[in-house]
Amino acid sequence: MRILGIETSCDETGIAIYDDGQGDSPEGILAHRLYSQIAVHADYGGVVPELASRDHVRKTIPLIKQVLADANLTPQDLDGVAYTAGPGLVGALLVGCSIGRSLAYGWDLPAVPVHHMEGHLLAPMLEDDVPEFPFVALLVSGGHTMLVRVDAIGEYKLLGESVDDAAGEAFDKTAKLLGLDYPGGPALSKMAESGEAGRFKLPRPMTDRPGLDFSFSGLKTAAGTLVRKQCINIEPALSADQLKKTHADIAHAFQQAVVDTLAIKCKRALLQEKLSRLVIAGGVSANTALREQLAITTKKLGGSVFYPRPEFCTDNGAMIAYAGMQRLKAGTDADLTFKANPRWPLDSLPSVKL
Ligand code: KG4
Ligand code: ZN
């Protein structure tokens, strides 16, 4: 069976076709394309929802045509159309929902609404090293930070989440304070590589008390205070080289604080659930320092860490096609009135018994 996946929940239009390998093609992603709207939002320092929706309208259908051509397929070769139905920006979601639902209707195929975070969570299944159930998943994106116990597809128990900013959001806001363009996470991480370890120390929020929730807004504020004290309100003013070094040192301290905080909570979650397999997914899981730290943490517990290739860590159509295929096989077929669901709890999804 083959399914088309459509992702339009935020600022990337992602389209892919996944084949489950039960027919004549091998299992896997047959084609995928991504169009990023970063340039559209760059001048505003963040995503402008209305511009995001309009750009998805422009890009989604041409990308679908390209992906079908890349895979050398026609709509008749497909068995379903999956689209991100939530959570995300409502206008952006509605573009993918309307196009996905209309194409499914026109092509006489089942339409499959997909939960964006389930897409992220299952993205490691597209790699060679597939995690077995049960495992703990750390979902770290621009909009969410969650620890989830995963017993099967659709069997999700929320163990903890951010009470304020998501990890990616904290990366982006701190990057902005350091003069980096949106979305600053990858740029901050690059800057941190040349930073001096130990010159500055930032807090590891909520690690001194029990529980698996996170809070990143205070950490971002602490980083802002450090920037003002060390870079702006300083006499004599720093030279360009000194400023560059101080920015890099702060970036290093910030990244280390986030990585340590996430690693402490992941260890706690694994011990609590008596599990040793950890999955990390979502945009921030592309962060090399985080991957290295979590490899050490899980190894010490006799386990291992699983993650998607970098291009499938951030938003993409492949993860939606994969998650959509699992839901299609479980019998999901949305009716004509299915709506976008911008706030959709992950643990409300039904279990998939394949
Ligand atoms: O999963 P994603 O593409 O979109 C959402 O669903 O939110 O995640 C985007 C987030 C952004 O905040 C971005 O700055 C962050 O992931 N990100 C990173 C890295 N790559 C992406 N943060 C830190 N280090 C990275 N290498
Ligand atoms: Zn995402």
Summarize the structure.
This protein is of the alpha/beta class. The chain has ten helices and ten strands.
From the structure above, extract its key features:
354 residues; alpha/beta; Nucleotidyltransferase, domain 5; 2 domains; 5-stranded mixed sheet; 10 helices; binds 5'-O-[(R)-(carboxyoxy)(hydroxy)phosphoryl]adenosine; binds zinc ion
Descriptive report:
The protein is an alpha/beta fold. It has two domains: 159 residues, ATPase, nucleotide binding domain (Nucleotidyltransferase, domain 5), CATH 3.30.420.40; 176 residues, Nucleotidyltransferase, domain 5. It contains ten helices and ten strands. The strands form two sheets. It has a five-stranded mixed sheet, with helices on both faces. Strands 8-7-6-9-10 form a five-stranded mixed sheet, with helices on both faces. The longest helix is centred in the C-terminal third of the chain and has 34 residues. It is globular, with a radius of gyration of 21 Å. The structure holds 5'-O-[(R)-(carboxyoxy)(hydroxy)phosphoryl]adenosine (KG4) and zinc ion. The site of 5'-O-[(R)-(carboxyoxy)(hydroxy)phosphoryl]adenosine has 18 residues, from helix 5 and helix 6.
